Amino acid sequence: MTDLCFVSAEGGSSFMEELLEVVADAVRSAGGQARTAVGKYPEAGPDTVYVVVPHEYFVISPDADFPTAEQCHRTIGFCVEHPGTSTFERTVSLVRALGAAVDIHADATAELRRRGVRVEHFQLGYTPLWDLWGGDLDSPRDLDVTYLGTAERRRSALLGSYARDLAGLRTRLLTPPHEPMTTARVDFLPGKAKFEHLARSRFLLNLHRERKQTLEWVRTLEAMTNGCVVISETSADIEPLVPGEHLVIARAESLGTVAAALAAEPGRERRLRAAAYDFVRSLDMGPSARMLIEVASSLVRGATAAPQTDVASARRLASTLRSPANALAIDTSSFDVRFAGDRSVRGTASPEGLVASARLRRQVEGARRVASRRWEPATASLAGSADVDVLIVRRTGEADPDELANDLLNGGVAPRKVLVGEDGVHPWPRPRPYDVLLHGTPLGRGLTRNSLLERSTASWLLVLDGGMRASEFLLERLLAASEGADVVHCPVADPVDGLVGALPPEERRLRTLPYLGSGYLVRRSLIDEFGGWNSEVLFEGLEDHLFWRRVAAASRPTALVQQVLLRRLRPDPDSRPMDVDPHRVWAAVDSAL
User: In whole angstroms, what is the distance from residue 291 CA to residue 299 CA?
Assistant: First the structure.
């Protein structure tokens, strides 16, 4: 009997490993022999045929683990990527070195064949390994809307645009960086945890990555198997699914509106859930599993043509595609609109930058010695009951904070008070429901925020910037997640970058990119322990980055509320030292911790 050995890359995505285990289980159910392995190809027997996901296995595995020519001829490429993505192009190049190939997508199968690749279509279907729901239509679901997909600018912008539609729903958007995910994180759920999450969620939003236009079949089947109704943007390659019966299809820009409307139609939701589950149960992987067994047997018999590309060429290509160990996603957005850490310091520092930075520092330091500062108390008291003070600093290039203050004071849970620092901005005189600190000239966000801190008396601080807008549920949901945490934060919708600040604090990532900023709830005691925010002129614009670096370095407990409860108008700050002399400023960050 042919021995099918499904091999995953060491350090590769747990998603791929899970998928191969599902296929191996289907092969065993069809009467075949199958096993799984991780890392280097196990030693082969006379009837062994390997199965790998080529775009991941060959690129992640080190050169020393690259299979021999004989092993490649005994390997079936299990292809999972759609045309229109860079990973599909990687698949096309690497799969030619293998003895055979199958693909789970009809469109990709057709495109591979058009490019001369010998490939069969493998139809995924129902597997008990995914089903943690069991079809009970009356089982409780405590999440209304979820999303599972790696961060990417187009998708992030769309998710941000749904903020107001989804504000009143219980939402959890999981948007991990586009990197191999090997273990559970707050933004990535492997295996059983993912299926449990889908079994407690009413709706799954589905958006395409890069330029692809076809349905994400694996994600769709996982959701339907667990009773989670799929709401997808317009997709090709959905047959035999029927829109309106098994899932809902709409324009990408409308998914938030559709989810909110469908949440108010429990009868229709129930019908979709039942029909989708029945459909998935009818999808039998047996025929595809038997096809895979036959393809493997033909390789053992030597009944297939030789690979189209020699192994040496494939190894060289894989080496050029391989990222350095522990490489980070390159498309994570910086929180700052101009400065992006390591990406902003390519090349060499310029003498002109040093001069310009020194001039800016002298100007601000001089202004701090002579600038006027005065407080104007609130003209109306709208104090809430939450033990929270809001600190908002508005600088040049940021929108008036009045609407943000009203968002907070009129929310479901209102703060004790709102404190606003107008740093070098001259607002029109008018009644305000908050205390305002007026600086005649710009003195810096860190210094201004520390001045607001002196006037604060609450146990918790909500830290925001001018130009933001808040959901009425912001404070309620941040406080609900605060038990056991020192800092609670949520993504911020940006009109250009999509979602910013959407990842948890990780020291290794923060060393390369200031991807977290304001928009967090923090214990006053932690800020006191840190001695307030950094107010050095050199680090203007990096005050929150330095805060997050200290949080991560000290392993302080944090919570990420995965719903878009804040959005911002894109700020346009005055020139700062890090804009004119990025090399020296970024290099000095470690010394400020």
Answer: 13
176-203 tens-digit pLDDT: 998 888 889 999 999 999 999 999 999 9
Q: What are phi and psi of 285, to 5 degrees?
A: -80, -5
Distant-in-sequence, close-in-space partners of 341: CB < 8 Å, separation ≥ 6: 334, 512, 513, 514, 586
SS3 state of residue 549: helix
Spatial separation of the C-alpha atoms in residues 566 and 518, rounded to whole Å: 10
> In this predicted model, what pLDDT tens digit does every residue of 105-148 receive, in sequence order?
998 999 999 999 999 999 999 999 999 999 999 999 999 999 99
Query: What is the SS3 assignment for 442?
Result: coil
Would you tell me how many other CB atoms lie within 10 Å of the CB of residue 347?
Answer: 7
Phi, psi of 308 (to 5 degrees): -85, -15
Contact residues for 71 (Cβ-Cβ < 8 A; gap 6+): 41, 44, 50
Contacts of residue 359, defined as CB under 8 A and 6 or more positions apart, other chains included, come to: none
Strand order across the 388-395 sheet: 373-376, 435-439, 417-423, 388-395, 460-465, 520-523, 487-489, 558-560
Contacts of residue 460, Cβ cutoff 8 Å, sequence gap at least 6: 386, 387, 388, 389, 479, 482, 521, 522, 523, 524
Residues with Cβ within 8 Å of 559's Cβ and at least 6 positions away in sequence, in order, are: 481, 482, 484, 485, 487, 488, 489
Residue 313 has pLDDT above 90, yes or no: no
> Are the beta carbons of 361 and 539 closer than 8 angstroms?
no
Strand order in the sheet with 33-38: 33-38, 3-8, 48-52, 75-79, 100-103, 120-121
Question: How many residues belong to the chain?
Answer: 593
The 3-state DSSP class for residue 220 equals helix
Structure tokens at 305: 């043509």
Backbone angles phi, psi at 421, to 5 degrees: -110, 115
**pLDDT at residue 309 is higher than 70:** no
pLDDT at 325: 61
**DSSP 8-state assignment for residue 562:** -
Let me know the angle formed at the C-alpha of 235 by 232 and 240, rounded to the nearest 5 degrees.
Answer: 95
Count of C-beta atoms within a 10 Å radius of residue 565: 26
Beta pairing, strands 460-465 & 520-523: antiparallel
**What are the backbone angles phi and psi of residue 236, rounded to the nearest 5°?**
-90, 170
The tens digit of pLDDT for each residue in 318-355 reads 888 777 666 677 789 999 999 999 999 988 888 899 99
CB 470 within 8 A of CB 492: no
Half-sphere exposure of 566 (CA within 13 A, CB side): 32
CB-based contact 276:230 (threshold 8 Å): yes
